[in-house]
Design goal:
The chain has 638 residues and is α/β, with parallel strands linked by helices. The protein is built from 18 helices and 29 strands. The N and C termini lie close together (10 Å).
Length: 638
């Protein structure tokens, strides 16, 4: 049915974008670009409100051809919807991770309905706008699009300038117009204490800094990391040897608490000493002492079996009791009471030949020192070469055969570990080889967290002369980048799952104390799955020769349901809806989602309304007598 028919009939109609407009509320909170140098930027305010602006007015800020065009694209409603891809998904009934295939501009708009202000960390590695970059994103900047966007006041000279800018390789105007709406959407998605990291090189670093100052607010600039990307450097210039890239970091809002700082709950272990008491013995519960393996996993050993082990003549363990010889007055062990409290709250104790017994504290919010802006070998973060080797190992190919300039998982893991807790969401909308998803799974495996990832990747065709193209053909996969993204996630996830299971088998027994909320990856399943969704054209009415042509609607009932879940935004789209009536009614908690409504009875409607809120897929509904009885109580979704 047409949307207007339901509206005319008195139904509540819900569609994507109904809950997007926050322009008139808390301008500085949501639109910091309006406030510049403690003054209201009238031209920017007019742009936000959709009023005509004088393009000739000069002032402080970043100006580029296509700026208003790009801002209008941000506000434009998406004409895409998502279709569940069960073939490419993994662990579809249990996973909390998402992979969205398609143009990330549309994917971000779809995500916005539920995930506004909910993403803790965003990492992106966008196109660097080099001469070799070929933009595969379908952004249009022409007269036809201008009319759709309501930009009728653009002159012929404006279009000529835009046409030249967007067709010229390495155009700053074109790149900024491409990035602008995507970064605006990224800001909408970040939680109040959220942070975005953006990798970039010299080509657009200066422009990106100004663009982000406007979008996120220059007061929310955290810093610029310098990452050593090459071990020997690349001769990309005749003048210098290029060895570094930049990672710009912005926070969503200028929160009072310290944003960064190396967490005490990391591999920087703290000795179990205290200078204010003289306890000589410390009793350890059974099997809580861990040793760290080379790959970052932890394995418990029995404290009872560690008989008479002495460390630097300071600590000695005998039958589960630690004895301190007190040969120096500066080192005393914790009190037993404090030690027991730490164990109950989930701290882990480790053997160290250098420092004796060390502890990883349970409180992840505790901060120590801030990180350096220089990311080099001193923080154990890899390079481009390491990333290539990482991918080659997963795909059993030669180094560099799949991706030339991927980021190492260790880099993303390093950045995410500073500020994400165990249940946070990490988003990457230029997913590429899937490094961010790999890093999130690896981080969860190491510390027992349950972080979730959302990846967006366009179906960029792979050139036929690339080894990745032949890999896709040999494995019956579409020869597009997203195929490699998904295959990398599957292979990396299986490696981590197997390693996790091996450590579970090695366990000598259960812990003798209550670990509270600390969930160790040794004791729970590791989420290495993901739901894959394809971006497809949303249904719409067409008129041909004066006749209304209705679209052909997908018969995949579950995809129709998921599309409503994304559109309405009340429920987490990673959840699996419970089937109430086959191919017709599904529910999450007390929210009922209905498609193919001609298949259900009046009693079905009545039972759903009695137990919760009811949403009906408008494209598969009809204005029949049964539905008319409930029009005051249901919402029609388009």
């Amino acid at each position: 049915m047409a949307k207007q028919e339901f509206t005319n009939a008195g139904y509540n109609v819900f569609e994507t974008g109904d809950n997007e407009n926050k322009l008139l509320s808390f301008l500085k909170e949501n639109y910091p670009s309006i406030i510049r140098d403690n003054e209201i930027n009238i031209a920017e305010l007019k742009t936000v409100l959709g009023l005509p602006t004088d393009e000739k007015v000069n002032g402080y800020g970043l100006n580029f051809v296509g700026r208003n065009f790009a801002k209008a694209k941000y506000a434009q409603k998406t004409e895409k919807e998502l279709r569940l891809n069960t073939t490419l998904s993994k662990d579809i009934d249990t996973t909390q991770n998402l992979v969205l295939k398609g143009d990330n501009l549309e994917s971000l708009k779809i995500l916005k309905n539920h995930y506004s202000n909910k993403i803790k960390c965003i990492y992106i590695d966008p196109p660097y706008n080099t001469k070799s970059d070929e933009f595969v994103y379908p952004d249009k900047f022409d007269k036809e699009e201008a009319e759709v966007l309501g930009l009728a006041n653009l002159s012929e000279s404006d279009f000529q300038r835009m046409d030249f800018s967007f067709k010229t390789k390495k155009s700053h105007n074109g790149w900024l117009s491409f990035m602008y709406p995507r970064l605006l959407l990224a800001r909408d998605l970040l939680s109040k204490d959220g942070v975005i990291f953006i990798s970039i090189d010299d080509n657009e670093q200066a422009n990106l800094k100004l663009l982000c100052d406007e979008i996120f607010g220059e007061e929310n600039f955290v810093g610029e990391f310098i990452w050593i990307r090459k071990k020997k450097g690349a001769f990309l210039s005749k003048k210098i040897r290029k060895m570094t890239e930049y990672i710009l970091c912005y926070q969503k809002s200028d929160i009072e608490k310290t944003l960064f700082g190396e967490q005490a709950y990391t591999d920087k272990q703290q000795p179990i000493v205290k200078r204010t008491n003289s306890t000589k013995e410390l009793v350890f519960p059974k099997n809580i002492i861990h040793t760290k393996l080379d790959d970052g996993f932890y394995e418990p050993i029995s404290s009872e079996s560690a008989t008479c082990i002495t460390f630097k003549n300071e600590f000695e363990i005998k039958n589960g009791i630690v004895i301190t010889e007190l040969k120096t007055e500066a080192r005393y062990v914790w009190t037993q009471e404090f030690f027991n409290e730490e164990i109950i709250n989930g701290s882990q104790i480790f053997l160290s030949k250098q420092f004796g017994f060390n502890v990883l504290r349970h409180n992840q919010a505790e901060k120590t020192k801030s990180p350096s802006t220089l990311i080099d070998k001193n923080v154990d973060v890899g390079t481009n070469e390491d990333a290539s080797s990482e991918i080659a190992d997963l795909f059993n190919t030669e180094v560099g055969a799949m991706f030339d300039y991927a980021k190492p998982a260790s880099l993303i893991k390093y950045l995410a570990n500073f500020l994400t807790a165990e249940n946070d969401i990490i988003l990457d909308f230029f997913a590429g080889s899937g490094t961010t998803g790999h890093a999130v799974m690896q981080l969860n495996a190491e510390d027992g967290g349950n972080r979730k990832f959302i990846l967006c990747q366009i179906d960029e065709p792979i050139k036929k002369d690339k080894p990745a193209y032949q890999f896709c053909i040999d494995n019956n996969l579409p020869p597009v980048i997203s195929s490699i993204t998904i295959e990398r996630l599957k292979r990396a996830g299986e490696q981590l799952r197997i390693k996790n299971e091996e450590l579970i088998i090695k366990k000598t027994g259960e812990l003798d104390f209550n670990q509270g909320n600390q969930e160790n990856s040794l004791n729970q399943g590791l989420d290495v799955g993901f739901k894959v969704f394809d971006s497809i054209e949303a249904p719409k009415l067409n008129i041909e020769d004066g006749e209304i042509i209705f679209p052909v609607i997908s018969e995949d009932a579950l995809s129709r349901i998921y599309n409503m879940i994304f559109t309405i935004g009340l429920d987490e789209p990673t959840q699996v809806p419970e089937e109430v009536v086959k191919d017709a009614i599904y529910k999450i908690d007390n929210h009922y989602y209905i498609t193919n409504s001609e298949k259900i009875t009046s009693d079905d409607y009545s039972n759903a309304l009695k137990n919760g809120k009811v949403f009906i897929d408008g494209w598969t509904a009809s204005l029949n007598g049964t539905l008319q009885n409930y029009k005051e109580d249901v919402k029609i979704v388009f």
